[in-house]
Structure formats: C-alpha cells, structure tokens
What we know:
Domain Radical SAM core: 196-430
Protein name: Radical SAM core domain-containing protein
Number of helices: 22
Keywords: Iron, Iron-sulfur, Metal-binding, S-adenosyl-L-methionine
InterPro entries: BchE-like, Elp3/MiaA/NifB-like_rSAM, rSAM, rSAM_horseshoe, rSAM_sf
Pfam family, one: Radical_SAM
Number of strands: 16
Amino acid sequence: MPDISEAARRRFQLVLIKPSHYDDDGYVIRWWRAMIPSNSLAAIYGIAAECAERQVLGTDTAIDITVIDETNTRIDFAALLSQFKRNDNFGMIALIGVQSNQYPRALDIARPFRDAGLPVSMGGFHISGCLSMLDGDAIGLDECRKMGVSMFAGEAEGRLEMVLRDAAAGELKPLYNFMNDLPGIGGTPVPFLPKNNIQRTLGLSTSFDAGRGCPYQCSFCTIINVQGRKSRFRSADDVEKLVRMNWAQGIHKFFITDDNFARNKDWEAIFDRLIELREKDGIPLGLMIQVDTLCHKIPNFIEKSKRAGVTRVFIGLENVNPDNLTAAKKNQNKITEYRKMLLAWKAQGIMTLAGYILGFPADTPESIRRDIKIIQEELPLDVIEFFVLTPLPGSEDHQVLWKKGVEMDADLNIYDVEHVCTAHPKMSKQEWESIYQEAWSLYYSPDHMKTLLRRGAATGIKLSSLVKVLVSFATTVPLENVHPLQSGLLRLKHPSERRPGLKREHPLLFWPRFTFDTIRKHLSLAGTIIKLSVSAFLIARKADAKTYMDKALTPVADDDEDVLDLFTKTAGGTAAVSHIKKVAELTHTRKAV
Length: 593
C-alpha cells in the first residue's frame, strides 16, 4: 500500500471485496486456499493504489485500501463496520468484478453496509453485460437501486478517482456508465495485489490481463459485449513492470487472463520481454495463457510460449461437432486443425487444458458420451473443463431468449455454467444435468488418467504437476459438487454464511456434520492422490516411457479423415473434411487434416 504522509488528517477507507457465490446448500463457496486468483481485484487494487499515491482526495486525505477475496477470506462484517466507525464512516465499499452468479451474494454483502449508511458501489460483468445487451431494468438491477447501491458499468482506468471523490463528498451517483467509452489500458496502473492476499491462492500465483476485447462473435460469450470486439493492449513495458513488482515480493507465477492471448498484436514483444526476464534476469516465470484453436498457425508463437515460461495453456475447444460450433457462431474453430494444434503444444512439453461445452442444440446424452470417447482416444489433450451451455446475461444467447420471452431460471446464483438454466430441444433438464455430472467421471476414469500420465511422460510434461491438476479435476465435482475452477484446498463453511431465506442450522448440528464430511472427503482425496502418484512414479520408471505412442499422439497423416472418428461420426465432421479436400483439389495441394 502506498505511503501517505502522517500529517494526513482524514483517512478514507476503501474496502475492495470480490464476492463468491452460494453452493447448492446455500453456503458461501470459500476455501483455505482458492485455486484461481481474481484479476478484477488485482486490476482495481492497482488503480486504487495509484490513486492513493497521487492523493486524489487531497493532500490532507489518505486512502487506506483493504482487499478481500471471499473465495479465500471470510468477510468480518462487524470488524469492517467498526473500522469505518473509527474513521467517522468516511469511505466506501466496492464490490469488484461481480459476475451474474455472484450478484445475489453481492447484494447480501452490500445490505449490512447500506443499513449502516455506508456508500457501496458495485461493478463487474453482470451490471456491464445487462446494461450493454438489455434494458436498464433487466435482471435484478432494480435491487441495487432500491438498496441505494451505486452501479458501475465499464472499466475503471481513468474513472476510479471520480468515483472516490464523489464518495468522499457524499455524492455517489446511482450509475456510472462507461460502456460506450472503453479506455485504453497501455500505460495505465498495472494489476497488482500484495503478497498477503496472493498467499491465499494455491501455488502462490497471481494474474494480469495483457489485453482486453475479442474480435470473434461466439453467441454464448459475454466478453465481446462487455470488453468490446476491438482489442486493447498493455505494452511490453507494462508487463515487465508488473512482473518486477511481483518478483520483488517473491511472486513469479501468473495467469494471463486475456480471453485469447494469441490475438494480442503485441504477443511477440511481450514474450520477448518475458524471455529476457527469464533467461537474463533469472526470474523463474511460470505462466498459464488462454488461446484459440488456430494459434499454432502463428509462426514462433508456441515455441516462444515455451521460452517465456508457459507451462499450461487453456484452449477454447468448446466442442468436436462442427454443427454445434456453427450454432454458437464459433466458426473460427476448425476440427481439422485440432490435432495439429494440440500436437504442437505437446511437442513443447506444455500441458493442455480445454473448455468443453455441453448442451449445444445437437447434443444428446448419447452424442456427448460418443464425443468424450473420441476425445479420449484421438486428441492429445490433457485436461477438459466441462461447462453447461448457459445463457449468461450479457451474451447474445441470453439477449435472444430474453427478447423472445423464453423462460430462464430466475435465480442468478446458478448462472455459473454448471447448472441448467433454460430448456434444451433434445434433453430434459434432468438428462442435461445428469450427463454433465457423468461427463466428469467418463473423462477422468482411472484408466484414462493413466493414459494421460503415459502421454505426459512421453511428451515431457512434469508428471507431478499433471497429477495435481488431474486430482483437482477428477475429484472436485463428485466430492464438492462445484466446478473445479471454483475449487481450492480445504473447503471452509460457517453457519452464519448461509443464504438469506434458508434456515440457519444449529451449530451443534452443523459443526459435527461439517467435520465428518471434511474428513470423509479428504480421505477420498488422499486415496486419489496416492493412486495417481504411484501410477506416475511407475510410469516414469518404465524404460519405454519416452517412446509411448497411441492414436492421439500419432502424427497427423493424410488418411486421418478416413480412419478417425473425429471426422467420420458427425455430419459436420464429414462436411469439414470434404471442404478441406475441395480446397486442396482447387489449389492442387494435398494437406493432412
């Protein structure tokens, strides 16, 4: 936190809170150590710290910043209210990066502060998406108005100081709407969090965005309607600055949150700078990035990813059925490129993770089971994250259903891409929910996880890291009934944190059951860890570990379109291959799919 002169007469209390949301039993999802760091929180803290350093509220006013990520920290309402009271209630609570599934919890957090007469502001994808795609009264926004919570739509670079000044003057506006004026982010304060906050994440990792916005048109996506379709970027200097700031406090692992880093026009300059920081300055960078399925076509992109410190890459695969991809306007995904792309990452020993959406119009339980089997046998993919196709407020899918008056679930808490929120043309709600649960056990079967370890040993992936990821993705849904991206280490609950409207459990009943469940889950977790660790140890010791080969690892060949189910089991797959052959015929080339 910036140093402010001790002569300051007033201290403005700025409390930044990233809300969690409620599980199916109504308890806040919170962990001793959470998996995913919040980039929204880091971005706002960086801006707020710079405002404090510039003394935007005047030379006689300091800004004290408190950071709370509810996924790993319990909110002590009484302590915070006392903190404000000691400072004459001079300050503001800011609810940061609120997604649709977090909106009900965010309102519940705001309520006691508003009851105490404190200013509260809320921003994030839910408010920004609703104001961008719907009318100003849609999807619960009136709850903010009734409670007197100020809404912030858009991005805070260059705007936060205005909100702080209004709050300090007691003149916080009901709405700050900058959706039609998205700022440049080059040269602005970089995302940053103090180490004591980062320590509450697994792996001591933090995050930053090197760019915002996406040019594609995926109908299920909210990013294009909140961050815009015109990309904006940080410079290599910005990235070096934030890396050095974090390295000064011992942090060297980063999740680059760009929806598609491969489309960042400055990707090479940024990678070159990161390579220099690793190879010349000795900063042991470990990076995870998100890319599209065509990134392998960019010369040197994957090779420089490896040198820059990328150890994991998340790919928006979404589906292996071209008919489903077309329905979602994700035409940039070509299944004929999937194997080339994944093998290119494998060649660099980088772990591949992919998002896979269940519930596209052509999906049925049978087709989903078939497609998972195809992925297991034919794609060299390490980790799959399954999602339920969800009409998120702020997406085109939601807007279309909303305009048509199609029924969608009224409880925003379940808009977390793991619950069914609307009807499907071929599956009942129960069938859809059941196949989502089944998908995890199908892909992460004991036999297939051993296969993944064999492939990892053959392609140079660090098996201990792969075991950690497989344990999380294989156990979180069956044990905790939450998505692995919402997971962490050691689930924490408190009877006071149950959703309003649900009966508060008596502590004498709550704590024994919670303790028993925790022990039971961790015994099961320990069993999975032991089994996978032993398998990894034995596989690594095999003399032929480096030469293991199966259908997925086999190099792409000209006859793949005739022998692989990826291309022959769906009409869209057959059509995609026919198109490739037609292009080859017209251009007098012969290219393997």
